[in-house]
Write a structure and sequence with these properties.
elongated, alpha+beta, about 300 residues, 5 helices
Length: about 300
């Protein structure tokens, strides 16, 4: 009798636990479904010819979420979007804040064949290897009319992020996704409205800092001048030219170009959003190799203060 009673109690306990699990599952807020739908719709807009998705997260909705609601969803890496087709005049120097730039597609230029003795290069699709920390956010600057054109000048913020993509053959290409020191000019004086464009160049800092050491201990400000097993290569013997760039590290600062087009403006909130295309070089391994050209497409958001 006692054993049967214990068995009944055990069965009841298991049923209570399972019931509690079901109750917990049903009590989880539907926010995860909202996030999944929003992220899916955002990535559906990777083609720049397509309009931004209707279910995109706005700045107000993003600000209303708590840390725990955002944690683990990937929304921290997403840029909000503006809603509306209004216009904002550029009749004075405007302060741009909360500029967020989110890549959605990465392509790397690769030699795909040879035609009439000349290499044929194309941009091929890649696989992102970096965790969701590649968007630029909190970027600020000014927008004003200079020399008859509306000009944006980047001034501060998280304006570059280390990113790595993998090519179809397996090669991994690291680079600093950057908008540092961007100076972008429009084809008009404004106003900022759907169709408003900006284009210009920016700086791409070295992927490695001066304190970085390669696998053989070589660096710029620290480490060895050349690999310990190859001392003769520093004495102008055969082979010195082949390894010159590897032995003589340098801090490369290169340039890239970007184009932006606004497709939504909310005049009440003084915010705007749109799509962008950027082309920039990859890492050079501190001068040891030639950089690859990277084509980046995505969306951006900004606000006037």
């Amino acid at each position: 009798m006692m054993s049967r009673l214990l068995l009944v109690i055990a069965v009841m306990a298991i049923a209570m636990v399972e019931g509690l699990k079901v109750q917990m599952k049903t009590e989880i807020p539907s926010f995860n479904k909202l996030v999944t739908g929003a992220i899916a719709s955002v990535f559906a807009a990777s083609s720049l010819a397509m309009p931004l998705p209707a279910q995109a997260i706005t700045k107000a909705e993003s600000n209303s979420l708590s840390y725990l609601q955002v944690k683990g969803t990937g929304l921290a890496n997403r840029c909000p979007t503006a809603e509306g087709t209004a216009s904002i005049a550029v009749n004075k120097k405007l302060k741009v804040v909360d500029l967020c730039v989110e890549p959605m597609q990465w392509q790397v230029q690769e030699t795909v064949g040879v035609s009439k003795g000349a290499p044929v290069k194309e941009f091929v699709n890649t696989k992102l290897m970096t965790r969701q920390t590649y968007s630029l956010d909190g970027v600020s600057g000014s927008l004003e009319v200079k020399d008859g054109k509306a000009t944006f000048t980047e001034e501060d913020g998280i304006d570059y992020a280390a990113t790595t993509v993998q090519m179809p053959g397996g090669e991994r290409v690291p680079f600093l996704f950057s908008l540092k020191d961007l100076v972008a000019k429009s084809s008009s004086t404004g106003p900022v409205k759907p169709g408003f464009d900006l284009s210009g160049s920016f700086t791409v800092p070295s992927y490695r800092t001066g304190l970085f050491l390669d696998p053989k201990g070589r660096g710029t400000t620290t480490g060895y001048d050349f690999a310990g097993a190859l001392p003769g290569l520093q004495n102008s013997v055969d082979g010195d030219a082949e390894l010159f760039n590897e032995n003589n590290k340098r801090f490369d600062v290169l340039t890239g170009n970007a184009e932006f087009q606004v497709n939504a403006v909310n005049a009440d909130e003084q915010e705007f959003s749109g799509v962008f295309v950027s082309q920039q070089p990859s890492d050079t391994d501190m001068g040891g190799k030639a950089p690859k050209q990277i084509l980046i497409k995505g969306q951006f958001y900004g606000r006037f203060e």
